[in-house]
Design a protein that fits this description.
heterodimer; A: 464 residues; alpha/beta; Flavocytochrome C3, Chain A, domain 1; 2 domains; eight-stranded mixed beta sheet; six-stranded mixed beta sheet; 11 helices; B: 15 helices
């Protein structure tokens, strides 16, 4: 890495948004240096754990079936965020996603026709062949081919946002301090979900029971430096994409396999063997993103998804085997729950279940009556041994606290005016669009959209 | 993950495969790459038979390793292609017939070398004892019968006929034993489609394409080099086989005796095939040399190199024999060629050659299975 000269465009971060910016800027003629804090094997931030991108299309587009028009996409986003979004930025992002698939293919990304358990997403989401790590490999190959310089294990430790500009950053490159100068800077360094201290600051003691589902390298250093030095903040530190995952998952980097898709088929109880939310409120793909926060709100931040033999094998197989028992009492013992309390909860639930025709592919008529909280779909009695349980913990995937941007991806300062030579893309600015909640595949939509805009704008700034 | 790690036994490999398959089945990001992933996704648990099936369905294209978010150094230490390569050798050991010869898979490079040396020595002695060493070093014109002046036709047929019959029985027995373990019932019962589908996949090397851009072999960059070299090898081999078959027809049906002129069908087929069989194995060896060590089972390098070397030498000695068949070198070249071919034949059921046999069986099963409805699971 050459730290003597001045780079046209310096990209902080090495995930999807960062590489989209780097490729675009390089193609516009700029010299580009990418600073990736992770080592080669862990490059790509959380993008290495992604799988698809939510994509608007007016008709069948490549691997996408049917149509997913702007208005429907916008309504889906509005619903999950409860209005905590910026309509201008959101609609711009939605419209731009139409152009991404061909661009991504031109840079080596391959898509797959959806198979197996993902059929219902083939209309809204374009799936990457091999997933996000394969996508990142393709982008890094394209970057190398066009002469983008990549510095791995190079972490930004300081930067000065002065006179609305960042003219240099200080990095720790494999233990060595260096100052790197640049004419334009794209910040795409992700959120702070790997920073347990910061999570604890935001969430208090419950954060100690959070599992970080993604990269251990998103420490939020760049985000903090920017917020401390005058970037305008969006969203807040407790907002993020947080799902309920298997409590036995590794502390970091467990990724997709830590999911537990049994929730809507049974009941979920807390440490006191009490139910606390409608497990059958909506299809699981539309609800998984709220269960992390729900479990985070329970004592000890733990929940247990309980099903019986009727439901076993009817959901995506989780990576860890369930606790299995031949009676509710035995199951309670294995989970360390009060047996009487669990028996009572299940008995009350079973008594409240109304007869119906079970069909997991529709919002069926199997529901409870007179129970609080109700289970409004797929409610079937839990009475056929063996009984199974999966322990659940909040799994933080990414955070929404970020820097404000405008439509040109320019970073906005506290006076509501843009910085002169700083652009932001990806998770570090996702909170502009995602104030809360989550929509599958929208992180990649935001990252690709703003990455490409940031790269283009930064290159135009330096090349004229 | 070092080359020095102790070789795992079949039960250990099965246990490791069950751990890895549980991760793959919960992830499913690789489902678009090849036949292995849709096959594993049909199952919630995996028996040893399933694991043999999946291992032999894998073409070791490597794409899933580079795409894997759980590949080393991740704490899950997931290296699917290497694990399946390790299982494959255990499958070949398990189904080999007769069973005691399965040990040939253990130090296969050594076994192949020894078999080659023994075959060469045997052919030399055979030729020398048959009609005296003097004839071996004389020059014979085509008109004088060339090859058969050194080793009479009937003697050649006796040696290679016996060996071929044994090899054929051993290969059929291995296939049958593998198939019996799948529990699929008689292979013909599923109709012709599974067999023709598998044949199509095998002849085009459909799954040696990494999902479209070529396999990530010898490194992370997708390339079709391996598929092309494999095609050269396979079709080169088949052309050589066709050359021998047409020569047999010439001999017994048309009454035409070798050696045949250059522009005759057997020689043309053999020459074109021979060139393929030089370029193909050489290319595959070159790729193997440069291969990312993560991609393979380091223990099997000897087996892979030994088989490719025998194919290469078969072609090299065959072409040399064609070029020098009217010189004094012919006798020794004939001994060398027949010795190498004999070694290739006797090691066939106990070396890398069988990958094609079991892969084909696995592909047939895949085509039977894909017509069945998939198991119902809740929306992801």
């Amino acid at each position: 890495m050459d730290s003597t000269g001045e780079w046209d465009v310096l990209v902080l971060g090495g995930g999807n948004a960062a590489l989209c910016a780097a490729l675009t800027a390089r193609e516009a003629g700029a010299t580009v240096l990418v600073l990736e804090s992770a080592p080669f094997d862990y490059r790509g931030g959380n993008s290495r754990h992604t799988r698809n991108m939510r994509t608007m299309h007016e008709g069948p587009l490549d691997v996408l079936t049917d149509a997913y028009p702007e208005e429907e996409y916008w309504q889906d986003l509005l619903k999950v965020t409860g209005g905590l979004t910026d309509e201008t930025l959101a609609r711009m992002t939605i419209r731009r996603t139409q152009r991404h698939v061909p661009w991504m293919k031109a840079h080596g990304v391959r898509f797959q026709a959806p198979l197996g358990g993902t059929l219902h997403l083939s209309r809204t989401n374009a799936f990457f062949l091999g997933g996000g790590k394969a996508l990142m490999n393709a982008y890094y190959r394209a970057a190398a081919a066009m002469g983008v310089e990549i510095a791995y294990e190079t972490e930004v430790v300081d930067l000065a946002l002065a006179g609305r500009r960042i003219d240099s950053v200080t990095v720790d490159c494999k233990g060595e301090r260096r100052v790197i100068r640049a004419r334009a800077v794209v910040v795409a360094a992700g959120g702070f979900e790997s920073n347990l201290e910061w999570l604890r600051e935001a969430w208090g003691p419950p954060a100690d029971n959070f599992i970080v589902r993604g990269t251990p390298y998103n420490m939020g250093k760049v985000l903090k430096l920017l917020l401390d030095q005058g970037a305008r903040r969006v969203s807040d530190a407790t907002q993020g994409h947080c799902v309920a995952i298997d409590a036995r998952s590794p502390r970091y980097d467990g990724g997709i396999v830590t999911r537990v898709d049994a929730v809507s088929l049974g009941i979920v109880v807390n440490r006191d063997a009490q139910r606390f939310y409608d497990e059958g409120e909506d299809f699981w793909p539309k609800r998984y993103a709220i269960w992390g926060r729900l479990v985070a709100g329970q004592p000890g931040q733990i929940g247990y998804s309980i099903i019986d033999a009727k439901s076993m094998g009817k959901f995506m197989p989780p990576v860890f085997p369930p606790e299995k028992a031949h009676s509710v009492r035995e199951l309670a013992g294995k989970l360390g729950l009060d047996a009487q309390a669990l028996e009572k909860t299940i008995a009350e639930f079973n008594a409240a279940v109304r007869p119906g025709t079970f069909d997991h592919t529709i919002l069926d008529d199997c529901r409870t009556e007179g129970l609080v909280p109700a289970k409004t779909h797929w409610a079937r009695t839990i009475d056929t041994p063996p009984f199974y349980a999966y322990p659940l913990r909040p799994g933080i995937t990414f955070t929404y606290l970020g820097v404000a941007v405008d439509e040109r991806a320019r970073m906005i300062l506290q006076d509501d005016q843009p910085a002169a030579n700083v652009w932001a893309a990806g998770e570090i600015m996702a909170g502009n669009i995602l104030g809360k909640g989550y929509l599958a595949g929208i992180g990649m939509a935001i990252g690709t959209t703003f990455g490409r805009i940031a790269g283009e704008e930064a290159a135009r700034h330096v090349r004229g | 993950m070092s080359a020095a790690e102790a070789r795992r036994t079949l039960p250990e490999l099965v246990e490791e495969a069950q751990r890895v398959l549980a991760i793959c089945n919960a992830c499913r990001y690789c489902e678009g790459y090849c036949a292995v992933f849709p096959t594993l996704q049909r199952r919630l648990s995996f028996t040893e038979s399933d694991i043999h099936y999946l291992a032999n369905l894998c073409h070791n294209c490597g794409s899933c390793l580079y795409a894997c978010q759980y590949a080393p150094p991740h704490e899950f230490q997931l290296n699917f292609p290497r694990l399946l390569a390790q299982v494959r050798r255990e499958s070949w050991r398990k189904y080999a017939w007769p069973g005691f010869l399965a040990r040939a898979f253990d130090a296969n490079g050594l076994v192949t070398s020894l078999a080659t040396a023994a075959s060469l020595a045997f052919m030399l002695l055979f030729a020398a004892l048959l009609d005296g060493p003097a004839r071996l070093f004389a020059a014979w014109s085509d008109a004088q019968g060339s090859f058969y002046a050194v080793i009479p036709h009937d003697a050649m047929v006796a040696v290679f006929g016996t060996v071929s019959a044994f090899v054929l029985v051993a290969l059929v027995a291995g296939f049958a034993r593998f198939w019996a373990d799948t529990g699929e019932g008689r292979i013909g019962l599923a109709g012709a489609e599974p067999a023709t589908g598998a044949l199509d996949d095998a002849l085009t090397l459909k799954y040696l394409d990494g999902g479209g851009d070529g396999c990530t072999y010898p490194d992370e960059k997708p390339s079709f080099a391996r598929r092309r070299f494999h095609h050269l090898t396979f079709y080169g081999f088949m052309l050589c086989f066709a050359a021998t078959s047409t020569a047999t027809v010439y001999h017994y049906v048309l009454g035409l005796k070798a050696p045949y002129p250059f522009w005759s069908l057997p020689v043309l087929l053999g020459t074109v095939g021979g060139i393929g069989l030089l370029a193909g194995p050489a290319g595959l060896l070159w790729l193997k040399w440069r291969r990312d060590p993560m991609l393979a089972d380091p223990d099997q390098k000897g087996m892979e190199a030994g088989f490719l070397a025998l194919l290469f030498l078969t072609s090299l000695t065959g072409l040399a024999l064609l070029a020098f068949r009217e010189t004094r070198a012919m006798g020794m070249l004939l001994v060398a060629h027949l010795g190498v071919v004999l070694a290739l034949f006797v090691t066939m059921p106990y070396g890398k050659f069988v990958h094609g046999l079991y892969r084909f069986a696995a592909l047939v099963r895949f085509h039977i299975e894909r017509r069945r409805p998939p198991p119902v699971t809740a929306p992801e």
